[in-house]
Amino acid sequence: MNITNIDDIRKLASGDEGGRTEYKLITGQLERGMETLCAFLNGEGGTVLFGVADNGKITGQEVSDKTKREIAEAIRLFEPFATITVSYANIPDTDKQVIALYAEEQRYMRPFTYKGRAYQRIESVTSVMPQDKYNHLLMQRGGKYSWEAIPNPDLQISDLDENVIIGAVRAGINCGRLPETTIREEIPAILEKFDLLHDGKLNNAAAVLFGRNLYDYPQCLLRMARFRGTSKEEFIDNQRQQGNIYALLDAAMSFFFKHLSLSGKIEGLYREEKLSIPYKALRECCINAFCHRAYHRPGGSVGIAIYDDRVEIESSGAFPPDMTLEKLLGGHSSEPPNLIIANVLYKSELLESWGRGISLMIDECRRAGIPDPEFHTDGSSVWVVFRYEMETAGQASDKHPTSTRQAPDKYPTSIVRLIELIGEHTCSLKEMMGMMELKDRENFLGNYLNPSMEAGLVEPLYPDQPKHPKQKYRLTEQGKALLERGE
Q1: Which InterPro entries does the entry mention (predicted)?
Q2: What angle do CA 332, 336, 337 make, to 5 degrees?
């Protein structure tokens, strides 16, 4: 904004000093004026006027070359480089001018400092910015200052799960987002390509994506609960799991299949699943929660709460500062707060790159005939609510028939799902995980295969040699009987 007209000055000086305007009588108060300008840069922008009294009276001042040099030198003391517009408005019938310093909003460059200090503006008061707010803005700036990009000298490649890394690479190659030669590269080279390793040091994003030992990352946590009824008064199931994004995503989907009604049709080795809430909508919501959450808060987490009438998925963080709910639900570009994490998830085909996640969730819910998901935020967390028709015991809705069919009422849906997928086939571990779209081996073994074998429903071909190179699994007679009763 270039202010050269005295009428523009009168308009600016006609109101009270507030969050976006400051009056200074002369440039003898240049230091205080620049501190306020720094506060404007750290907010929504604003204007400092020199030659205007506190009461808004326009007095002006004489402007020399020395005055202009002092202003230019002061502007150079902002870090990072700030775009400041300097205007001089002549006062009619005098040799005096009003100097206007205008700072436009520069949200993605914050925080700014003047002479090494950051300032903030609250109403008409300029003050030194608290350290915690400065750190928060610094992480929001992204690049080398973002939490995900900060190196962790104690994190070693041995702390990462190589199988998950290779799985991500294979997925990226299969979808054409990574060149086929990537699979032949060493793990350090792959991590460098993923922007997770620099100068021999792994960053925080590496732990979030592929970490196996996450003792230093309490925020890599998933909370899961199934409540009886529509309130939090009584638990049916309550779990907590810590791990990397891929492991937590598998755990989340397992929890949904355990507690939501399921129906579907098997064709060959593959099955089209129909949960009370569409599988793709829940998966997309979880991926977004893990990708876009605020990881710099150690106490943060992702939470899943299942009630009789709804599912709520919550994560720490907030929508982008300029993202309204209307813009969120309409067409919008993707602005991930965690660029490194988002890039790896995109290359491994988990994440869409064009902001289509929300529209996908809405489309899936409409296709299933349930209400659109609801999106909420309170500035520190985001939660999505999926509503579905309540089902009473033994009386499933026509829209959402239960898959347990209650012949095997003692078996969780996750086990029944595995039984139905195996059917008449004999499958390897890799084949079963592929059919279920699961990537985390430990999660599959702990929540699906091992419980099915312990229940006597699934058996290995080589029971005395669990690690036999040709090991495969099939249904026992009990498992086949269960499958027949459910059809």
Answers
A1: Fic-like_C, RecG_C_sf, Schlafen_AlbA_2_dom, Schlafen_AlbA_2_dom_sf
A2: 135
Q: Please report, as a single letter, which amino acid is at residue 346.
A: Y
The DSSP string of 400-464 is: S--SSTTTTTTS-HHHHHHHHHHTT--B-HHHHHHHTT---HHHHIIIIIHHHHHTTSEEES-TT
Q: pTM of the full predicted structure?
A: 0.63
CA distances, 132 to each of 65, 128, 237, 292, 378 (Å): 40, 12, 37, 21, 19
User: What does the alpha-carbon distance between residue 38 and residue 81 come to, in Å, rounded to a whole number?
Assistant: 11
Separation between Cα atoms, residue 279 and residue 359, nearest integer Å: 15
Q: For 27, phi and psi rounded to 5 degrees?
A: -75, 0
Residue 411: name the closest of 464, 458, 443 by CA: 458
- What domains does the chain contain, in order, with CATH numbers? 6-141 (3.30.950.30), 146-399 (3.30.565.60), 404-487 (1.10.10.10)
CA 62 from chain centre, in angstroms, equals: 53
Q: Cα separation of 187 and 167, whole Å?
A: 12
- Upstream peptide bond of 80 is cis (omega within 30 degrees of 0): yes
Contact 486, 416 (CB under 8 A): yes
**Span 252-300, pLDDT tens digits:** 998 998 888 765 554 444 445 567 899 899 999 999 999 999 888 788 8
**How many of the other CB atoms lie within 10 Å of CB of 267?**
8
Per-residue pLDDT, 306: 96
Residue 65 φ/ψ, nearest 5 degrees: -60, -35
Q: From start to end of 220-328, where are the E strands? A: 221-227, 235-242, 262-267, 270-275, 302-306, 310-316
